[in-house]
Design goal:
A hairpin with a 2-residue loop joins strand 5 and strand 6 (154-160). The protein is α/β, with parallel strands linked by helices. The chain has helices at residues 4-7, 9-12, 18-26, 39-49, 82-93, 111-115, 128-141, 168-171, 184-187, 191-210, 256-259, 272-280, 312-318, 334-344, 357-366; strands at residues 29-33, 53-57, 98-102, 120-123, 145-151, 154-160, 219-224, 229-234, 269-270, 285-290, 305-307, 324-328, 351-354. The protein has two domains: 4-259, NAD(P)-binding Rossmann-like Domain (Rossmann fold, 3-Layer(aba) Sandwich); 266-366, 3-Layer(aba) Sandwich (Oxidized Rhodanese, domain 1), CATH 3.40.250.10. 41% of the residues are buried. The chain starts with a helix and ends with a helix. 35% of the residues lie in helices and 18% in strands. The structure holds zinc ion (ZN). Zinc ion (ZN) is lined by residues 162, 166-167, 169-170, 238, 241, 243-244.
Length: 367
Amino acid sequence: MQNFSERYKSHILLEEIGVQGQKRLKSSRILIVGAGGLGSPVALYLAAAGVGKIGIVDFDNVDVSNLQRQILYNDNDVGKSKTEVAKERIEKLNSQTKFIAYNERLSKSNALKILKNYDIVVDAADNFQTRYLVNDACALIGIPDVWASVYKFEGQISVFDAKKGACYRCFHPIPPKPGTVPSCGESGVFGAITGIVGSMQACEVLKVITAAGNPLIGRLLYFDGLNMTAKEFKIAKDNNCSLCGTNSSIKELVDYDEFCHINEFSENEITPNELNVRLKSGKNIQLIDICEENEKHDLNSPKSLSVTLNNIGFLKEKLNPKRETIFICKYGYKSIYAIRLLKELGYKGKMCSLKGGTNKYSVITAG
Ligand SMILES: [Zn+2]
């Protein structure tokens, strides 16, 4: 066994950590939700710092496009389970860290069972359902949620500890409508930003465990990597918060897909195969590509018309409600949002969205 004081000498020298703080790290149990761009640096720094037990929840396999930022993985890991690779990597980094891999999706049914074995949860996920689930479960159990999110060159980070300050619901009581907030895969993200923001999350976790400094409770740090500036915002606890307010209505976990309207338009979704059948049948469909100004999703169909979400109002006048309209976009979120907007505008024609977007479609048709 390596010498404790030798291995962690640089921590022990710090007045704010010392031997006592290092021992606290050794006996601490941290759960990381999401083994991606943020989860990678969090796991590596926590293991290196001597955290005694680390759990990681993720159901995904390593994709080649992850390697640009998800530094737990390398070329040889493509196709492997993220949590299994993470376990191997962390155990090599620090054999004294007990690592638990949860190769599953965090859900209403398993969240409390998993989270109650930990002292702090790191929310390194990239979707709103998981964000609300982690926040609610942490508040119900009474442990802090170290949250962050990244977008292009920007990051946001805060510590939601409902016992001492605001929770995520105080900050965002209502989730955004699906399709309105793009994921990293849709908008792009600068790899090093996930490294910086994930390292900040690790920093907050270590501070909370050792009681060093001032954690970001009731505060949000906004980081702009393109201009290298940071701003701090106060997040006040909302006494009317449905979760942590004085008359809270949420006493147990809810259905987060429903809360975030994830399946609201699922009956409007068609699979890539269904799209192929429709395209080949020569049926009189209207194919609309929902795109940004500078992108186009080529399905090799001369029929497709490209429209931005801002121009949906104009599109309504052009569409023939007697013909079926099929919306496509890269990931299948904006196309759903287009359906929502047109319904709100009173359009009555039949509408479908390509499930998983052209991203999935091209994989299937190529394979
Ligand atoms: Zn709250």
